[in-house]
Amino acid sequence: MDGSTAELVATGPKVSEAPPSGGGGAAARLTPEELVAKAIAPVKKDFIRPPPARASTNDANDDASESKRAPSTLLKEKKSKKQLKRERRQEKKSAAYLCPEVARSGDASSCPYNDKCRFSHDVEAFKAQKPADLEGECPFFSAEGPCPYGLACRFAGTHKDVLSGEALTGRKKGSEMNGLKKDIQKLLWKNKMRFQKADAQLKLLGLLGKMNTKNKMPSDKEDCDQTLSNVSPTADKNGCSELACESSKQMESPATDNNGCSEVVYVSDNQMDHAPQPPAEDDTAHLASATDEIRPLKKAKSSVDENCDSVLENHEQSFSQSGNTTDCASTETDRCLKLHPREKKLIDFREKLYLAPLTTVGNLPFRRICKVLGADVTCGEMAMCTNLLQGQASEWALLRRHSSEDLFGVQICGAYPDTVTRTIELIDRECAVDFIDINMGCPIDIVVNKGAGSALLTKPMRMKGIIQAASSTVDRPITVKVRTGYLEGRNRIDALIEGIGQWGANAVTIHGRSRQQRYSKLADWEYIYQCARKAPDALQVLGNGDVFSYSDWNKHKSDCPQLSTCMIARGALIKPWIFTEIKEQRHWDISSGERLNILKDYARFGLEHWGSDAKGVETTRHFLLEWLSYTHRYIPVGLLDVVPQRLNWRPPSYFGRDDLETLMASDSAADWIRISEMLLGKVPADFTFAPKHKSNAYDRAENG
Questions:
Q1: SS3 string of 520-589?
Q2: In 376-506, at which residue ranges do the beta strands (DSSP E only) sit?
Q3: pTM, entire model
Q4: Which of 289, 302, 620, 700 has the most CB atoms in a 10 Å sphere around its CB?
Q5: Residues with Cβ within 8 Å of residue 392, at least 6 apart in sequence
């Protein structure tokens, strides 16, 4: 990798002719103050590029007519799921997919499945079609033991040790945590996982629907259920206790009304027999399954549950008779008891640099980069509760934690108290996390339309049920992330801030935009300050929105001392060294070479995380390109007439101080691919890339 990088930098990589949007000609004529007023970055005139020559109208019309004449050649036949599955199986049998066990050992007879293996065992055919090795050393070269990918590694030429199949497991245990165990995944697939603490708290709060007559439990369970559900809240406008009052006929249907508070309903035995399917592979299936209702629990009780319920009932009876608790020797007893709020663990977020949970780009390698550059708190990408409860491996991968993340949390998103509470109990039981964040501000349509994310801002009683049940189930701190409101101009968090603290949340992060705004306009920090001043002392308030320099950080902290800290999101995507700037209180005029070294570290961390085989290299390339779709918006400090850069500024077309800096400033995906080739080698044939998220673009309404 180093040799090709030096060669490309020395020869000067070609940059696409299309410059970043913003109008280089207009930027050259206006004063810096006028440019700032128009949200155009005031780049020094010496670096402004002339606007590129535009194609003539006739040429454009000719191109349009040609594209209309032959659109049929681009149409692809839509294939069924069975066809796609069959093609994937056949593809895995090809020489390009060598069995992992054979790749590690180099011996075709080492696979325990022999002829029944899904992958190819033809070592010679694999070597014949394998592309040339990448330049540089294997990312596992310095690790203990040999490379876990063996012959499949794209750096196999640098391997020196004897191949072994035991290296991968040891490395993962030492560096990464929170993996999904196979036995737990099977229980989730079959709906046999029990959620003792979550169900007990949901019943106490009246948030778990009664079972119908077809699925009745033993009589002792009914007695305990009656005891636990003595206190039932009255139904409100949001329907938080509506399910408990429905008839048995209504409970047989898996559908609930739009404001129903419970996602888990009890259905017939035939419906119970269908277990959730393994995780879908494409993003569309991921988002669709994220909002589906989870399957109901099986009616069969385990011996542990029976003991737990009986112990809890006996404990309550003895408490009412004698006025004090009895000494229970069983470990299941402790799991059924609610902790006093003063016994819960707390996290002090004050003055800590908090990297926000960032979808797609906020993956584990990126968080490692931010930790190296000074971040104190990190949080995993948002994971959907229903997907976690269904045992989807792709969703559980979002909970992974690196050993360098010393203060780490996970963020989950769900629409109903039972779904969120059971997910939190599962995470508390299976994962090593310091806090759990509940997302109540996601603006994505497919999430909001199912009642999760920002939709919860319109249902304060459901918010209350989720936070109360979640905070009562586990002893880990529960935090909440919200927006100012659902509709622009109708902020409502100031009216809920006191309740959020009383319901059991340890901290709340307020993004200074409404759901309707998405990422347009500037964040309303005055409203964040107003909420922070109204918050109870026990509730920590964190601000979020448009923090892009140490001066932004200092201003927010000085303007509102009640603010615990500021969460940094897109500012870290564009320049992850913002954490260094805040800690060192300076504007870092970082060079292109230093930025390239950060990208090299990301590529190395990505290969360690996703693998150094062909699939791992391309996965790393994909997420690197997603990140580069943000980093091109950074303008070096030495090129600006006004410092610091603002997050809403559009850069004009400009030259960098060297060819590499010019290449990094390009908004063309073709130039991002060239940068990836400097780090990960040539892209495969017919490779294309389009950014996944619109939050990396500039909003037209925001910039006039």
A1: CCCCCHHHHHHHHHHCCCCCEEEEECCCCCHHHHHHHHHHCCCCCEEEECHHHHHCCCHHHHHHHCCCCC
A2: 378-384, 401-402, 408-413, 435-440, 478-483
A3: 0.76
A4: 620
A5: 278, 279, 280, 289
Q: What is the rounded CA–CA span in Å between residue 576 and residue 595?
A: 10
CB contact at 8 A, 567 and 480: no
- Asked if the model's pLDDT at residue 195 lies above 80, the reply is yes
Residue corresponding to tokens 């929105």: 545
Percent of the chain with pLDDT over 90: 55
Decide if 441 contacts 544 (C-beta within 8 A).
Answer: no
Q: According to the model, what pLDDT value does residue 3 have?
A: 53
Tell me the pLDDT tens digit for each residue of 47-104: 998 765 545 445 544 544 444 444 444 445 677 888 888 877 777 778 888 998 998 8
Q: Are 193 and 246 in contact (CB under 8 A)?
A: no
Give the Cα separation of 425 and 474 in Å (integer): 7
**Inter-CA distances, 414 with 109, 213, 275, Å:** 47, 28, 20
User: Measuring CA to CA, how many Å separate 30 from each of 22, 23, 40, 307?
Assistant: 13, 11, 10, 77
58/128 Cα distance (integer angstroms): 49
Q: How far apart are alpha carbons 581 and 587 in whole angstroms? A: 6
Check whether 11 has a pLDDT greater than 60.
no
C-alpha to C-alpha distance for 453 and 462, rounded to whole angstroms? 12
Long-range contacts at 425-428 (CB < 8 A, ≥ 24 apart) = 425/195, 425/197, 425/198, 425/473, 425/474, 426/193, 426/195, 426/388, 426/389, 427/388, 427/399, 428/473, 428/474, 428/476
CA angle 73, 79, 83 (to 5 degrees): 135
Kind and range of the H or E run holding 367 = helix 364-372
Please report the pLDDT score of residue 334 as a whole number: 43
pLDDT digits (tens, 9 = 90+) for 419-465: 999 999 999 999 999 999 999 999 999 999 999 999 999 999 999 99
Considering the chain, what is the average pLDDT of its residues?
78
Residue 282 has pLDDT above 60, yes or no: no
> 401-402 and 176-177 as β-strands: parallel, antiparallel, unpaired?
antiparallel
Q: At what angle do helices 493-502 and 460-473 cross, to 10 degrees?
A: 30
Residues designated catalytic: 442
